[in-house]
Design brief:
Length: 427
């Protein structure tokens, strides 16, 4: 079967690797000029096996887990909540089997692409703008006017997927938050930050910091998440926000430091930001897609963010992309090995993946709004204190207590909103 994959982020290369050895002819098309070109310069994410996620399992299957842990990143064993002044509120220990891999997006992407065999052709600087279908083929339509015919087209082209736009007729939606991320090579570390994701929350602002090893160097990945209005979004895309500064200029770093100091964030953060190179700082708005069903149209199927674009607040996006690739591979192999009908295989893939993925999109939306529309103390006690209590008092697993605590926090927030609404109506 000839399979054309649109997009070489995380989902696309993973699918290509998993399909090896099963008689498929695979090509990847991506709009980036090279593997290293990517706007999310400072972005990192967590790969794990908890809360029903299977990202770690997929990397192990590819033989990349140990490489990532030992050479490219590090494991997170605790989640620590601190005040803006740096005092510890609480710390949650992650069981060894649930320890999370925190890895820079670009490093994982390159690790996946480097493992591709020569038989997989990656076409860079090639933008797919849509598709069409014939009686027994799918055709990818490229921006230069050329066409590529295939037995199956996989739309793995991200949040702003052109394949998704055509298939479902919708667009990516702004979440209402702005993300500013950076990565620095630095030796700044405290007892709080060793093997830990460090969270600080203030009214309208969430800050995280994680420390990890990369080829013997100590790396610091940090991020600020704050509120953003719809009017901000176009300005950011055009690099005009913050009095015209570009996302690769000194003014951006100065603005980030100003925000951190205005909120009086503990001294670790400004020191790390000051040591972050300008070209390792990026900012963008968080976008998502509304959950949908019907992930395929004939011989065209969606996966990764193209199928279920989510904000980063549930820490699940990369894990979902990896699992999409695993499940789709299993179904496509049934087509070639067992004679399963392609339509049935694509339907089975969606049936296995859609419920969990769409649920996590909504959960990430709820968490994001909680983080930036509450005070630091309220988020700590609404979202993270229940996780700690459920573990200490009832001994629940880390995954179980996270799920119960976040759902409980959602119920509390809804009830509180209804009470406030009733009080307002009585005035």
């Amino acid at each position: 079967m000839k399979i054309v994959i649109i997009g070489s982020g995380i989902a696309g290369p993973t699918l290509a690797l998993l399909l090896q050895g099963h008689g498929h002819e695979i090509e990847i098309y991506d709009r980036d000029a090279t593997a290293e070109q990517r706007a999310q310069t400072g972005w990192s994410f967590s790969i794990r096996n908890d809360s029903g996620l299977r990202g770690k399992e997929v990397l192990q299957k590819l033989g990349l887990w140990d490489t990532c842990v030992n050479e490219l990143a590090g494991l997170v064993r605790t989640i620590t909540m601190v005040t803006t002044g740096g005092s510890k509120l609480m710390s949650i220990t992650v069981p060894p089997k649930d320890a999370m891999l925190r890895i820079h997006r670009g490093l994982l992407r390159c690790a996946l692409l480097d493992k591709l065999p020569p038989s997989v052709n990656v076409h860079w600087n090639t933008h797919c703008v849509g598709y069409k279908q014939t009686a027994n083929k799918a055709v990818a339509l490229l921006a230069d006017g050329s066409e590529v015919e295939a037995d199956l087209i996989v739309g793995a082209d991200g949040t702003h997927s052109q394949i998704r736009n055509q298939m479902k007729g919708d667009k990516a939606l702004p979440h209402g938050t702005v993300l500013i991320m950076g990565t620095a090579k630095t030796n700044i570390a405290t007892k709080l930050t060793k093997d830990s994701v460090l969270f600080t929350l203030a009214p309208g602002l969430a800050v995280f910091y994680v420390n990890y090893q990369y080829k013997g160097d100590n790396m610091s990945n940090w991020g600020l998440i704050t509120r953003g209005t719809e009017e901000d979004f176009e300005e950011i895309r055009q690099h005009k926000r913050w009095k015209g500064c570009n996302e690769r200029t000194e003014e951006v770093k100065a603005k980030v430091l100003q925000i951190v100091r205005e909120y009086k964030i503990h001294d670790v953060m400004p020191r790390i930001i000051e040591e972050t190179p300008f070209d390792q700082i990026a900012f963008w708005t968080a976008f998502e897609r509304n959950p949908v069903t019907g992930w395929h149209d004939g011989r065209v199927v969606l996966m990764g963010d193209a199928a279920h674009a989510t904000t980063p607040f549930a820490g699940a996006g990369a894990n979902m992309a990896l699992e999409d690739a695993l499940v789709l591979t299993e179904q496509l192999n049934k087509v070639t090995q067992d004679g399963l009908d392609l339509e049935a295989a694509l339907t089975a893939y969606e049936k296995q993946r859609a419920k969990q993925a769409n649920g996590l999109v909504l959960e990430a939306r709820r968490r994001g709004l909680a983080y930036v529309h509450n005070t630091g103390w309220s988020v700590a006690f609404k979202l993270w204190a229940p996780v700690w209590v459920l573990g200490k008092v009832w001994g629940m697993s880390f995954a179980s207590r996270k799920k119960k605590a976040f759902w409980g926090a959602t119920v509390v927030a809804v009830v509180a909103g209804l009470v406030k609404g009733c009080q307002w109506l009585r005035r």
